[in-house]
Specification:
The complex is a heterodimer of chains A (about 300) and B (about 350). Chain A is of the alpha/beta class. Chain A contains nine helices and 14 strands. Chain A has a six-stranded mixed beta sheet with strand order 6-7-8-3-9-10, sandwiched between helices. Chain A has a four-stranded antiparallel beta sheet with strand order 2-1-4-5, with helices on one face. In chain A, helix 3 (about 105-115) runs antiparallel to helix 4. By secondary structure, chain B is α+β, with helices and mostly antiparallel strands. In chain B, strand 6 and strand 7 (about 120-125) form a beta hairpin. The longest helix of chain B is centred in the middle third of the chain and has 32 residues, at about 175-205. Classes of the chains: A alpha/beta (about 300), B alpha+beta (about 350). The interface of A and B includes residues 72 and 99 of A.
């Protein structure tokens, strides 16, 4: 079982900064969801974690030690795109994994591939996108690794197999494996992940335990007396991490003490007051949506 | 650990085995179709046998059978002596077409022929079981290995697109890379053996070859064996980091290599510009392994003939190039990113 520690990770490609000063820890036996819009740096982060891309600076430690060849015995990775050898059959891929990793469970691989309905005699080139993803997931799960890193593991899968992969992720965590996965399907992340990190343009925008993030973050919604009504410094309230204003309607994202914020709005004479619980998608969108997109309706300056 | 590489090599060997099998079958068909014509002395004596007035006599000389065909009218005598090793020594004396005095020798694999014309008579001697230098087989094997060295010249580039599998094996990149090289060299060695076996099988259908190993231990053999290795290493060094376009590099490698190494041989020093070009081509050609075959030839008997660079320099350079290109390949492989 492993704890993964990422410290000040930075990766640049020429002038382009893919990942910048990224730091977080992933406790062992945890399901960790890495979220972010396209180009946020999720895949680059995974590659840096696996030494598939060399970090420009920063460190990735597994139980306090940098990645070594023998550590790879304990890590299984599913990339976002198919890396299967087109000319090889699925059975040959299974054999490749069996020969490379001592803990590879052949019976489990056969069972998983059968569950996904994959004919092992087929060459990879004959598989659909979803079947390729399913094959890579099955090969990774059969590794019985301590750490599973899955980059969009449900990409291209039908809803039934998406659910199946999600259940496999949860089962792997129950077995004691640390699972790190990314997905654009936030509902899936919400269902499976205990902790999340949200990345945006290479930076860490948000990180924490899903339940805590949801418990702490609320939207306080109010209707102001007029469109030009002054908010009297509410934007500077440390409990409010974001304030969106659209005409008379104002929404304040609070990171704590939502009831107190509600009381401040009430004192200003606002009506229609209510506290809205956030789901993970709301939290994600608030973390990554550019502030300048709503600048004209935010702030009471 | 290098299962994928083994599969790649095995698949290529399978295809090559099919090609060689087809060649053997073709040789068998040819052999069957000419059965009775080339298998013995009948082909040679058929003409004289059909001529009226030919007298045939059989005798035993030194315990071995001799057949003599004499046609006084045609002034032709054919003597066929069986030999201890199963071959035949055929001696034909007949009128020459002209009065030129000449002597010619020719070898076609195991058949050695000499033709002497003097005083209006022609004396032709065939030895159907002449020695065949094993260096010839090694030369054929070297050509086949060169073809596969070219095919496997992008072994590392082939892993692009699959690095997430190749680089996440629980071994160092250097060890994995050495495994790739090891399987490819093993593949080339198997190709060479398969080629030699197929050549011997094809030849033995016509005449069991009497091998001559006398020149095998000469330096020329080392040149033949080293060239595919150096070529393989050079191509991989050129393609190991390429995410795409490695096929084009492989495709152009032979024509570009041949053109440069050929141009390097042409003296252009008559003009200053020509001198510059010659210097450029000569310098560039030094790093192209196939350059070191220029001026290296083999006689019918398999004897290595050398012009230009001494053979020891050629061999040492090829060893050096192989090691340098191999190291360059591994350095690139260690630095490659997915």
């Amino acid at each position: 079982m492993s704890t993964i520690s990422i410290k000040n990770l930075r990766k640049t490609y020429g002038p382009y900064v893919a990942v910048d000063d990224l730091s977080f820890e992933i406790p062992e036996a945890c399901v960790f969801g890495l979220l972010g819009p396209n180009g946020a740096g999720k895949t680059t982060t995974f590659k840096c974690m696996l030494d598939l891309a060399r970090p420009t600076s920063g460190t990735v430690l597994y139980d306090g030690a940098p990645l070594a060849p023998q550590t790879l015995e304990r890590i299984a990775y599913v990339p976002e795109r198919s890396v299967l050898y087109e000319w090889m059959t699925v059975a040959e891929h299974v054999e490749m994994q069996r020969r490379a990793y001592t803990k590879f469970n052949l019976a489990r691989a056969n069972e998983l591939l059968a569950q996904f309905g994959i004919d092992q005699r087929k060459k990879a080139r004959a598989l659909s996108k979803g079947m390729r993803t399913a094959t890579m997931v099955a090969l990774a799960i059969a590794r019985e690794a301590d750490i599973l890193i899955l980059d969009e593991p449900t990409s291209g899968l039908d809803p039934v197999n998406q659910r199946h992969v999600l259940n496999l992720i949860i089962n792997e965590s129950a077995r004691g494996a640390t699972v790190i996965f990314s997905s654009h399907q936030i509902g899936q992340v919400e269902r499976a992940a205990e902790r999340i990190a949200v990345m945006d343009t290479g930076h860490l925008a948000l990180e924490g335990v899903v339940d805590d993030l949801k418990a702490d973050r609320k939207i306080v919604e109010a209707i102001l007396p007029s469109e030009t009504f002054a908010l009297n410094g509410l934007a500077g309230d440390p409990r409010i991490s974001r304030l969106d204003r659209n005409g008379r309607i104002v929404r304040a994202l609070t990171s704590r003490d939502a009831q107190d914020v509600l009381a401040r709005f009430e004192a200003l004479g606002a009506s229609g007051l209510r506290i809205v619980d956030l789901n993970l998608e709301d939290i994600f969108l608030y973390a990554v949506s550019p502030s300048d997109a709503t600048a004209d309706v935010v702030e009471d300056r | 650990m290098n299962y994928v590489e083994w599969l790649r090599v095995r698949n290529a060997l399978r295809i090559y085995a099919i090609v060689l099998g087809a060649l053997v079958v073709l040789a068998l068909i040819v052999r069957i179709s000419i059965n009775g014509q080339l298998s013995s002395n009948e082909f040679i004596v058929s003409h004289i046998q059909s001529e009226p007035g030919t007298v045939v006599s059989h005798s035993v000389v030194n315990g071995l059978n001799r057949a003599t065909y004499v046609n006084a009218k045609e002034r032709t005598t054919v003597t066929i002596d069986e030999q201890n090793d199963g071959g035949k020594l055929i001696h034909i004396v007949r009128p020459a077409g002209n009065h030129v005095t000449s002597t010619q020798h020719a070898n076609v694999v195991s058949i050695q022929m000499s033709d002497t014309q003097k005083n209006g008579m022609e004396s032709i001697t065939f030895n159907t079981d002449g020695p065949v230098s094993f260096v010839i087989f090694l030369g054929i094997a070297s050509v086949a290995a060169l073809v596969f060295a070219t095919i496997w010249g992008c072994s590392f580039a082939c892993e692009q697109g699959h690095l997430e599998y190749a680089l996440l094996k629980p071994v160092t990149r250097t060890r994995y890379g050495l495994g790739v090289i090891g399987y490819d060299i093993l593949g080339m060695a198997i190709v060479a053996v398969m080629t030699v076996v197929a050549a011997i099988v094809c030849m033995s259908m016509f005449e069991w070859p009497h091998f001559d190993f006398s020149h095998v231990a000469e330096p020329g053999t080392a040149l033949l064996l080293l060239l595919p290795l150096a070529w393989y290493a050079a191509l991989n060094a050129a393609t190991a980091s390429l995410k795409r376009g490695s096929g084009a590099v492989i495709g152009f490698a032979w024509p570009v290599g041949l053109v440069i190494s050929s141009l390097a041989q042409i003296p252009l020093q008559d003009s200053p510009v020509g001198n510059v070009f010659h210097t450029i081509f000569w310098t560039v050609s030094r790093i192209i392994p196939i350059t070191y075959l220029n001026g290296a030839t083999f006689s019918d008997s398999g004897r290595y003939n050398n012009e230009g660079l001494p053979v020891t320099i050629r061999i040492a350079t090829l060893i050096g190039l192989t090691l340098i290109y191999g190291a360059l390949t591994l350095v690139q492989w260690r630095r490659v990113e997915a």
